[in-house]
């Protein structure tokens, strides 16, 4: 299934672009609201609470609350699962770093000029002026950067992460069709077609995310990697009493569809954990 | 008369050919297995194969060169790349140059048979070429 991810800064008219590309390509268009709704349904969590956690502001001292940290794997699990099932365009940045190795997922970054973004803020939020709009944009950009660094260890604005970077600059809405056309032409290239290797990559990631999400409450610091039915679990040092539970843990993982074998490794605390306050 | 799918299998590891050739012959394909990619280039020049299955990392001539030669000879030929060194760049390069599919090693013979069946379908060759389970 073909996948386009479209990552934009706030107020960069990403929704208009994403919907335009989806219409042109005949793909389903999915945004963060859809992902939150799907996760709420799949994991039987109150949608309002999920939304609140997702949108909550980060602070300088606590860039990533543990609640938000636990929420992301749920969103990643439902999003990557959907990527496996249908041709789609996703507008957002959840899991974009996770699918770097998936050759049929084309990662697109769209940048807009500060002036056009400020105009969007004023128009949408009935903001009083350019200075206030500029402050809002600056704050949102900074927050997303922290968000992305804390969870993925990457810079969301780093062009190296993307296959295509489109600068819509000060383009008016009527000219966005050119940007849509450019993205659609690129996405139709043969090199972005799904193949056995890339489909397997995505399936592996989907299963890893699903397992990580399923154990996020009981084993929040555990990482899962899947490779053709073998699951590699990386768990923090286990206490003696927890070691007895490892077999139960393994058996629970074996219940997932597609899992043939489970290997568990104990990992030491690393700097990423410390940065996340774990 | 039924069409028999002509397959050229290229891998410099003897074990790969030894294992895959019988698995493909068993389901009715005509398979020529070669370990020397230079000989493979010669065979591609002489013959038109329906499907070429090639490894990527080989000495002197690599799988991408095989792919290019196959595409130059005939756009009808479907090239399936098998590799233990797959990554996003290689996958895209191979697809861009006309590969039909890419499979990461190790894989089961049944995985390759399924991809070959898809390639045969794309070639619109009927008859003995469809995938059959080992039970058949």
Task: Please give a handful of descriptors for the protein shown.
heterodimer, A: 278 residues, alpha/beta, Rossmann fold, Alpha-Beta Plaits, 2 domains, 5-stranded parallel sheet, 3-stranded mixed sheet, 8 strands, 49% helix, B: 136 residues, 5 helices, 5 strands, globular, disordered C terminus
Give your account of this protein's structure.
The complex is a heterodimer of chains A (278) and B (136). Chain A has two domains: 3-192, P-loop containing nucleotide triphosphate hydrolases (Rossmann fold, 3-Layer(aba) Sandwich); 218-275, Alpha-Beta Plaits (2-Layer Sandwich). Chain A has helices at 14-25, 32-42, 47-55, 66-85, 114-125, 130-152, 176-187, 196-214, 240-243, 246-254, 271-275, and strands at residues 3-8, 28-31, 88-91, 105-112, 164-169, 223-227, 230-236, 261-267. Chain A has a five-stranded parallel sheet. In chain A, helix 1 crosses helix 7 (176-187). By secondary structure, chain A is an alpha/beta fold. The model of chain A has no long low-confidence stretch (mean pLDDT 88). In chain A, a hairpin with a 2-residue loop joins strand 6 (223-227) and strand 7 (230-236). In chain A, 32% of the residues are buried. With 136 residues, chain B is α/β, with parallel strands linked by helices. Chain B has one domain (6-123): Response regulator (Rossmann fold, 3-Layer(aba) Sandwich). Helices cover 42% and strands 18% of the residues of chain B. Chain B is built from five helices and five strands. Chain B has helices at residues 14-25, 37-46, 63-73, 88-96, 109-123, and strands at 6-10, 30-34, 51-55, 78-83, 101-104. A five-stranded parallel sheet of chain B has the order 2-1-3-4-5, sandwiched between helices. In chain B, helix 2 runs parallel beside helix 3. The model of chain B is unreliable at 126-136 (pLDDT under 50). Chain A binds chain B through residues 100-103, 189-193, 195-198, 200, and chain B through 86-88, 91-93, 95-96, 98-99, 101-104, 111, 115.
